[in-house]
Write a structure and sequence with these properties.
The protein is an alpha/beta fold. Helix content is about 30%, strand content about 20%. Helix 3 packs parallel to helix 4.
Length: about 350
């Protein structure tokens, strides 16, 4: 081999070594990024709540003592782009932390974040982990699917939707956060059943649902099976997000879609309490918040944004929720204003058990 040929061979070898080294560095960098992403994903998980039994339920109680109490927080809409939603959630959690009455559980009935993305869940996790709270249970609302509207620049962009994202990813994000196998699930708290139903698709998978709650056959069969276990008349609590349409009709956008079947499943049972969110209506604006059907149907207000009858966030300082207490002979449902830690006389119901 001549000297010139040797030099060419040596230079070629150096180029190959450099290329191999560059490739190795890229592989290592991607590995680090993947591990970081996995770690970030792992961090967006809340501890799975355990079945709760308190002294109130375990021991003999008189008619003046509640057997079970819980708070319902609807429509949090946590968003890093709206500090007011974060402020209101802190007010609610501060109130719960210092509450003068027992709270065995907290129900979060959908629209947990404004856009259903990782940033919203990170902020929600930060809020919840700052407090020692009773077990949390949640279902999904339509806004928990909104990540499909957000483009790569973080802007709300309907023209480019679904922006490379899917409804499936939104469900997975929610389920992972709360440690669930499916978006619908049940809880047993102090011996009382709580069933949390979630919409299972949004407009990326089913454009026809709009902002409505679509439940699959599997979920409705599960719901029917769960209800069949509670024929003893003990109060049963059902959490949904979107409200029901008028009796005798199925719903559409902004409503529970398969409403006829939902009502038919509940018809044989007494002492069933159904709670929804979605409307954000102020407990003090004259809107109907309790409807008596074959079950007791309550519309919650909102933690993040309380709206007037024109669906405007006029009273930006307000933040509201429901407090439920179960006694041997009755259930009380009371509206709470978290901003000033007060009860709302316009939202105060005492339901006798039958």
């Amino acid at each position: 081999m001549s000297r010139r040929a040797f030099i060419r061979w040596l230079l070629g070898l150096l180029v190959l070594i450099a290329a191999a080294f560059t490739g190795l560095m890229k592989v290592l960098q991607r590995s680090v990024e993947t591990q970081s992403e996995a770690k970030a994903g792992e961090e967006l998980v809340l501890p799975k709540p355990e079945t709760t039994t308190t002294a109130a339920a375990a021991g003999a109680q008189d008619e003046h003592s509640p057997l079970f109490s819980f708070m319902i927080l609807s429509d949090l809409h946590i968003s890093v782009y709206d500090p007011n939603t974060i402020k209101h959630m802190k007010q609610a959690l501060d109130d719960i932390k210092q509450f003068e009455s027992p709270i065995e559980a907290i129900m979060l009935t959908g629209d947990l974040t404004d856009f259903g993305g990782t940033d919203g869940y990170k902020e929600l996790q930060k809020l919840l982990s700052a407090y020692k709270l009773p077990p949390l249970y949640a279902n999904m609302g339509n806004h928990d699917y909104y990540d499909i509207w957000v483009d790569k620049k973080g802007a709300f962009n309907k023209e480019t939707a679904p922006n490379g994202k899917t409804d499936w990813q939104a469900r997975e994000r929610f389920q992972k956060f709360f440690g669930l196998e499916k978006p619908y699930h049940s809880a047993d708290i102090n011996g009382f059943p709580v069933l949390l139903l979630s919409q299972e698709a949004y407009v990326q998978e089913k454009p026809e649902v709009g902002e409505g709650a679509w439940y699959s056959d599997d979920q409705l069969n599960w719901f029917k099976d769960q209800m069949s276990k509670h024929k003893d008349g003990k109060p049963t609590f059902v959490m949904v997000h979107q409200p029901l349409p008028p009796i005798g009709s199925d719903g559409g956008s902004h409503q529970l879609i398969r409403a006829k079947q939902f009502r038919e499943i509940l018809k044989p049972y007494k002492n069933v309490f159904v709670f929804c969110g979605h409307r954000h209506q102020d407990f003090q604006n004259g809107t109907e918040h309790y409807v008596k059907e074959t079950f007791h149907f309550f519309h919650n207000s909102s933690v993040g944004r309380v709206l007037n009858r024109s669906f405007q966030n006029e009273a930006k300082e307000k933040s509201q929720g429901l407090y439920v207490q179960v006694y041997k002979d009755r259930v009380t449902v009371r509206g709470r204003e978290f901003s000033n830690r007060s009860w709302l006389k316009e939202a105060d119901w005492n339901i006798k058990l039958t």
